[in-house]
Amino acid sequence: MTTATAQPITFATTKPESLWDKARKRFFRHKLAMFGVVTLSLLILVSIAAPLLTPYSPIELDLRAIRQTPSAAHWLGTDGTGRDVLTRVLYAGRISLSVGLVSVSISMIIGVIIGTIAGYAGGKIDMALMRLTDMFMTFPSLVIIITVASAMGPSVYNAMLVIGLLTWPSIARLVRGQFLSLREEQFVRAARSIGVSNWEIAFKHIFPNTVSSIAVAITFGVANAILLEASLSFLGLGVQAPTPSWGNMLRDAQSLNILEGMPWMWLPPGLMIALAVISINFIGDGLRDALDPRSIL
């Protein structure tokens, strides 16, 4: 007579999906955000690979090819000094996109530090820092940037510095608001009760919970910085010739004759600015929708 041995019952367990996994899936399902990612990636790729994509120099003059129409030799024609427009558009992408990234990095560092100190410390420190922030936000940003840029002198590095130093208030207020809402949460009180330092609580416990909001703000900040650089260069206060940027290419094509009869000189850089700004804004919209806690839960 045989006796059957009991077999252990096993249950299939699946790892619960994290909030970040849900956010990532929502972002990839956002069609406009995916369009922005693909478009911006292409802009960055062709700007980096510009020496491989065109045989011409972006700064050397060719007086034998002044203002030629688009052809097999020059796909987007040439400008008033014989330089290939396609070459200058590709190389200009390096400058314009770099200005956006560097200036936003500067403003992000300043804004995060001020917002963190104000939101976590509170009291008189918060009041003093927020009044300073309000003072910066009171004045028209473009007017102040133009004034400071003209005083410092036109250059690409000054453009990065001026835009970065004068566009941090929005990030500071965002971070401060996040800290004010999070500093009384249970996990912060628990960290205080076991003797965790204020520095660790602020930057190791609270700050990671603000990253999603900061990421969205950074995307919109980059788009705004690209537009500001284009405005400064168009006014002659940003990137200086012969270094190409999308803004100073538009400045070189501002005469009525060129606007009416030579669209290849102003349409490509204008289109690149529009594509860069729109794609970055689409990415920001996708991040905002994907990281919204109400839509993830």
Structural class: mainly alpha
Using only C-alpha atoms, the radius of gyration works out to 25 Å
How many strands, which pairing sense, and closed or not: the largest β-sheet? none
Shape: elongated
Task: Compute the number of structural domains.
Answer: 1
Percent range for helical residues?
55-70%
Number of strands: 0
Distance between the termini: 57 Å
Average pLDDT, rounded to a whole number, is 86
Q: Main attributes?
A:
about 300 residues; 15 helices; elongated
What is the secondary structure topology, with strand pairs?
Layout (H helix, E strand, L loop, with lengths): L18 H11 L1 H18 L1 H4 L31 H37 L1 H16 L2 H12 L3 H11 L2 H14 L3 H8 L4 H9 L4 H24 L11 H7 L3 H6 L5 H24 L2 H4 L1
Helix pairs in contact: 1-14, 2-4, 2-14, 4-5, 4-7, 4-8, 4-11, 4-14, 5-8, 6-7, 7-11, 8-11, 9-10, 11-12, 11-14, 12-14
What does this structure look like?
This protein is an all-alpha fold. It has one domain: MetI-like fold. It is 69% helix and 0% strand. The chain has 15 helices and no strands. Helix 1 packs antiparallel against helix 14, helix 2 crosses helix 14 and helix 6 runs antiparallel to helix 7. The chain starts with 18 loop residues before the first helix and ends with a helix. 36% of the residues are buried.
Report a brief summary of the structure:
This protein has 15 helices and no strands. The chain has helices at 19-29, 31-48, 50-53, 85-121, 123-138, 141-152, 156-166, 169-182, 186-193, 198-206, 211-234, 246-252, 256-261, 267-290, 293-296.
